[in-house]
Amino acid sequence: MAPKRKRLSLRQKIVILNSLKSGEKPANIAKRHKINESSVRTIKRKENAIRKTFTECGSSSLTYSFNTRDVVMVKVERALVWWIEDLVHRRIPVDTRCIKEKATVFYEKFKCEKPSSSNMQNTKQFCASNGWLRCFLKRNSLHNVKITGESASADEEAAKIFPKTFSDTIKAHGYVADQIFNADETGLYWKKMPSRTYVAKQTKSVHGFKTAKERITLLLCSNASGDKLLKPLLVNKNLKPRALKGMDLKKLPVHWMANKKAWVTASLFKEWFEKCFVPEVRGYMISKNLEFKVLLLIDNAPGHPVIEHPNVKVLFLPPNTTSLLQPLDQGIIAALKTYYIKHSFRFILNKLESNSAINVISAWKDFNVKNCIDCIKIAVKDITKTTLSKCWKNLWQDVVLQEESDNEGLVTYAEIFELAKSIGGEGFDDMDIDDINELFDLYALDDAEIIHAIDNNNNNDLENAEDGEDEDAPPVSLSSKILREGLDKAADLENHFIDHDPNDERLSKFRRDFKNAMECYQDLYKEMHKEKSQRLLTDYFKN
Questions:
Q1: pLDDT (tens digit, 9 = 90+) per residue, 282-323?
Q2: N or C: at which end does the chain have fewer Cβ atoms within 10 angstroms?
Q3: Per the record, GO CC terms (predicted)?
Q4: CATH of segment(s) 156-439
């Protein structure tokens, strides 16, 4: 009886092709992979297309695709994911019409850029249909992104309803203001200057000068009483930049992490939650003589996964209500950025006053990520308890401390203007509020930047450090040990639900889907051990 038809991943097809190339018989390969011998011959016939797709897709998750997908479409969907994530990080709602339009734009650009790379160039033109959109969202696990059918905007109706849900949760669990936290991230262009200044205009052509679009992401977390602002998380593109060479990263005034986009991903958020949030909040509860039971309020950004913890309840804000309800977005983040600008200007002035031989551009060029961290540290200390508290007014008016004068922000602006005048020159002498607010805005990734990133993406989590390489970069490939550990954990997870789920129909579906999901890793593990056994046998005969 012929083996049951089995879907092979792209990586498995490469393994089969390599086995054929080494001289192994198709019948033996078919038996080992539990497929028909005709399937092996079909894979051999399509070798060029399979190897081309594998090479151009690199070692990303797409190499586990079951089909030899059009390379242009692979790039289109990667670019689209970057574009959607950028919108979400800038708090811009996403709708299906815009996704389809942008997909068509990317398709045309990638097709024109390298028309010979498409496997579908002789077929009909790509159409961003509803069916394609559903598959795209599923393929890329964009479940946490609120995708609307029409042009999206802030959901005022949901924002009116949620405070009642929030209040009921507080009463049900008996939380006090010290025990309720809000976490949110924001992008910071740490070396950006107002566009009217001569520094911004001239440094574009200065060799070795960091671009104004050099971005980091900060994750802030504070409680409703305003009594605690946790140590910020800073996500950089580079794990070990030269400015931090020789320093103990654990002793920085920020939790230092890195990935190629400098974004808070789901894995980074989970790591922050487990290694930073929980220990720091536990210590804070002890210092306040309070029970370690905490409510963490976050929005539904893609980088915020569902997390369970015995002492922490995670509550999600409704989609598209961040601008209306998120406490950190009601003034805390703006306060931090204002103070950061003030202290970065102070850095320039101190440089000029300590060395009359240098100019403003030279002083600003010397401003590195270590100086950036120093400014963040001071800016965090500048944020007052009252500022932290009053930003909860849209959710929990009762907890807000007596509001301080609204002149506080204006005083900080006035200090920035005084520093700018002392620095002097075009754009500094007559700096105004619009110039400062410009520094708050997050750049939109333009199509050219995204396409360049996709074309040059090597799929490493960490990129090169400033003018050099990061040290101790994690391996890209999965090792046999990591696979074995993952398979053991998967077995424990399956057994957990087998032991506890009384619903046979739901359990059966879970086990079926779970088995299909784990199959690619099981096959990869088997292949690794088979190749290892073959090598050991060969070595034995050599000896």
A1: 999 999 999 999 999 999 877 888 899 999 999 999 887 888
A2: N
A3: nucleus
A4: 3.30.420.10
